[in-house]
Each structure stands twice: as C-alpha cells, then as structure tokens.
Sequence to fold (229 residues):
Amino acid sequence: MASQRKEPSAIIKLYLILYNSVQFLGWFYIFVQFVMHVFLEGKPATTLWDRVGQATYFFQLLAIAEFFHALFRLVPSNPIFTLLQVFGRCMVVVAGLEGTPGGKVSPGLPIAIFCWSLMEIIRYSYYVLHLALPKVPRFLTWLRYTIFIPLYPFGFIGELLCFYWAQPYFRETDMWSISMPNRFNFSFSFYYFVWMMCIGYLPMFPYMYLHMFGQRRKVLAVGEKQKVK
Fold:
C-alpha cells in the first residue's frame, strides 16, 4: 500500500477490509496450528500438511483475487509483480504440496509454512489498519516493511525444497503432462515445466527482493519525514 494514493470508494474500502480481515484470520489460524503441531505437541513435520493443508490451500488460492485487485486498480500494487508472487506460491501449494506425496514430507514445508503465515499475518493486519484507521501504528508499519528481509529468502528456499521433493512424482506419473499422439499434435511435460519455472525464478528472486527493499525505503522515508514535522 502506498502512502499517497487515491482514496477508494466506501464500497471498495469495505470489500478490501473484509478481504484482508479474512486473510489475516486464515493465516493466523495456520500459524497457530503450525506452532501447536511443531513446538507445543512435538509432532513430526512430515504430518504437518495433514493439519494445515486444507486451510493453506484455501487461503492461498483466495490470494488470486489480489492480482485482480491490482489489475483493476483497487490497490496501487504492480499487477505483474503481484501475479508472479501469487502464481509461484499457488504452484507450490497446488502442485508441489497438495498434488504429490513427496512435497508433503519435504523439509522445506515447515520452513515455507512458518515464513508464509508469519509474513501474511503482518501484511494483512497492516492492510486492514491502513484502510480502517487514519494512521497505522508506526511499529506495525516498520514490521510490515522489515520482516520480509529474513522471511522472504527463507520462504523461497522452503518453496524450492518442496518442489525438489515433489519432482520425482511429476516424472514418474506424468502428472498434468500431455503426451503425443493427440488431436492437437502437441506435447507438454509438467515435470520439465516445473524445473524451468524453478530455474527461471532464481534470477528473478533478486529483482523481486530488491523491489521490496525499494518499497521499504519509500514508505519508511515518508514516515521519517512526517515524524520530523
């Protein structure tokens, strides 16, 4: 959310408050379940997806709406940047985790769930307060634009590990692949598509990471100027 932007209409603002509140509650629930499963109950991480998978699947797919929020200028986010983020994580959740037995037991799963849920709790709570209050508490603003520094790269590593543990299943089952001959004279290997996507995301990661640093500088710089005044 930019600090200087056109105020949305009352209906759009109400919708965005409801959407972000639902996402906040959903990811807060996932985070609590993660903490209980791993730290309080001491259960193995290999059964974590059985506990949080359904909620993670639902709330991550719900995030597809954010691309359309950006596309139709309900929010000032970059549509392409939003699409890349949402598509990448949806692929991990739908294909790598829900779609394969290997992804569910990947050592990257608890890393990804922890980073995703904690970042989303902070991000969505910030959005709700940004829309509902005249001014967001400074600490939450700082946290919103700082917590990504450690969590974003660790979450990215978790995603890659989930895909790595899932890829043997893609290869062995030809999941979502199209073989010839067929009426369209077309073939598609989802296994190779996943590998190309993972390799393609590696050089994109620095760009996306630095973009977030740029957003951080702009927002926190505005806060410093207001504080001085």
